[in-house]
Amino acid sequence: MKPTVAFIGLGSNLSHPRRQLARATAALAHLPQSRLIAVSPNYLSAPVGTSGPQPDYVNAVAAVRTALAPRALLRRLQAIERRQHRRREAGAARNAPRTLDLDLLLYGGRRIRAAQLVVPHPRMHERAFVLRPLLDIAPTAGIPGHGLARRHWRAVRGQRIARTRTHFLR
Fold it and tell me: Which of 90, 110, 127, 140 has the smallest CB count inside 10 Å?
């Protein structure tokens, strides 16, 4: 398969979120048939779409050049989540707190609609915690079906988001 640039959203609000993102970034750098090419700064953001109070999230976006097919990449992302103690339980509340969330945001310019995979991520253009870090590493990124990512920034810039420290593994 020809290498494609994929963008991955990273988020955590449990168990030392900055460390969770640092470990996930290190794991992304070791994906087979892939190369980590960029990682945004970390951002602190308010939870979105939650049913009750929970801690703020730490978010970032990574770019990976990969020869993995979209579903194979998704399986690898979910394996990283499991290694970092992410639990997906049937009947759990949507947008519940989590140790790690890795979302396949974009896979080249492709549009994919499958049972377990929708690309581009269906709400990414509505979320400051995705757009701000994405624009940091890919200012001309396009969202298939929605146009340039930067054109959506104005609509979401009222959402609470602030750049925060990045934790580095030693």
Answer: 90
CATH 3.40.50.12780 describes domain 4-164: no
Q: Is 152 helix (H, G, I), strand (E, B) or coil?
A: helix
Express each pLDDT in 19-78 by its tens digit: 999 999 999 999 999 999 999 999 999 888 766 788 999 999 999 999 999 999 999 999
Residue listed under structure tokens 């930067």: 150
Q: Which residues are catalytic?
A: 86, 98, 101, 103
Give 155-166 as a DSSP string.
HHTTS-EEEE--
CA distance 24 to 101: 9
Three-state secondary-structure class, residue 35: strand
* Entry pTM: 0.93
Q: How far apart are CA 67 and CA 170, in angstroms?
A: 29
